[in-house]
Automatic annotation (TrEMBL):
GO terms for molecular function: calcium ion binding; mannosyl-oligosaccharide 1,2-alpha-mannosidase activity. Coiled coil: none annotated. Belongs to the glycosyl hydrolase 47 family. Its cofactor is Ca(2+). Keywords: Calcium, Disulfide bond, Glycoprotein, Glycosidase, Golgi apparatus, Hydrolase, Membrane, Metal-binding, Signal-anchor, Transmembrane, Transmembrane helix. It is an enzyme of class 3 (hydrolase). It is a single-pass type II membrane protein. This is alpha-1,2-Mannosidase. Pathway: Protein modification; protein glycosylation. Disulfide bonds join 276-308. Its EC number is 3.2.1.-. It is found in: Golgi apparatus membrane.
Length: 316
């Protein structure tokens, strides 16, 4: 399947961000602006390498070396570019040791830094790679930044500081964490929206699915990545999970465990598809959890995964 996908992208969409499989042509979504930055190539590198598809990996590396250029007049999603481009390049560098990936990752990170030039240091959702001008999505609660977006930079930025010796990246993401720690949280829950000008929460909507999801994942992974030394990240994770379990996790009438969403003071008994990652997260976080509750969290993870399986299995 990987080879099938790669070969067809190679034939019909090479250099484009994505491939339209039915039309058989390349395109770019608004998260990557209007430029051809080969998002599929960068995003696939680590998988190609791990699967032993080294010829394909070398093709990708060659394209990146010759064509990947970040000085384009293009407005991109800071979050998407971080997880796919910086994350993809760093993973490729760690796997292969090829210097070009590190160089490109650092170049790109420099282009994202202007997004943090806000009154609070909470970054804009989008930044123009050429001008450095940032702004937020028009639809996000009164000009707010989104928890899952500014909360899903930590791992890559910590590694950038580790690889370059420049603390600027580490400092940007630690500043976000410190700010979040200081803030009052309704019911101990993190709302999905935070205004980067005022430093106040937007509408009180909490979700472990879209808009919230990877913020929680990155707290746990920051702790794991630090060889379990970053106890602050672990504490923030544990506190968040306890509030989620208390206020959002319920059982359906048919006995399925699900994670609902908190909106304007009440629980919406719905679970988005993106929330399904939480089954794995609870399992991953079981080891090292408070009060010897590893068994409890493994069980909870299994129940969430079961609910997600059933949601497919019962749908025509």
């Amino acid at each position: 399947m990987m080879k099938h996908a790669w070969d067809n992208y190679r034939q019909y969409g090479w250099g484009h961000n994505e491939l339209k499989p039915i039309a058989r042509k390349g395109h770019s979504t608004n998260i990557f602006g209007n430029s051809q930055m080969g998002a599929t190539i960068v995003d696939a590198l680590d998988t190609l390498y791990i699967m032993g598809l080294h010829d394909e990996f070398r093709e990708g590396q060659e394209w990146i070396d010759k064509n990947l250029d970040f000085s384009v007049n293009s407005e991109v999603s800071v979050f998407e570019v971080n997880i796919r481009f910086i994350g993809g390049l760093l993973a490729a560098y760690y796997l292969s040791g090829q210097e070009v990936f590190k160089i490109k990752a650092v170049q790109l990170a420099g282009k994202l830094l202007p997004a943090f030039n806000t009154p609070t240091g909470i970054p804009w959702a989008m930044v123009n790679l050429k001008s450095g001008v940032g702004r937020n999505w028009g639809w996000a609660s009164a000009g707010s930044s989104i928890l899952a977006e500014f909360g899903t930079l930590h791992m890559e930025f910590v590694h950038l500081s580790y690889l370059t010796g420049d603390p600027v990246y580490y400092n940007k993401v630690m500043h976000i964490r410190k700010l979040l720690q200081k803030m009052d949280r309704p019911n101990g829950l993190y709302p999905n929206y935070l205004n980067p000008r005022t430093g106040r929460w937007g509408q009180h909507h909490t979700s472990v699915g879209g808009l919230g999801d990877s913020f929680y994942e990155y707290l746990l992974k920051a702790w794991l990545m630090s060889d379990k030394m970053d106890t602050e990240a672990r504490k923030m994770y544990d506190d968040a999970i306890e509030a989620i379990e208390k206020h959002l996790i319920r059982k359906s009438n048919g006995g399925l465990t699900f994670i609902g969403e908190w909106k304007n003071g009440h629980l919406e008994r719905k679970m988005g598809h993106l929330t399904c990652f939480a089954g794995g997260m609870f399992a991953l976080g079981a080891d090292g959890s408070r009060d010897d509750k590893a068994g409890h969290y493994l069980q909870l993870g299994a129940e969430i995964a079961h609910t997600c399986h059933e949601s497919y299995d019962r749908t025509s």
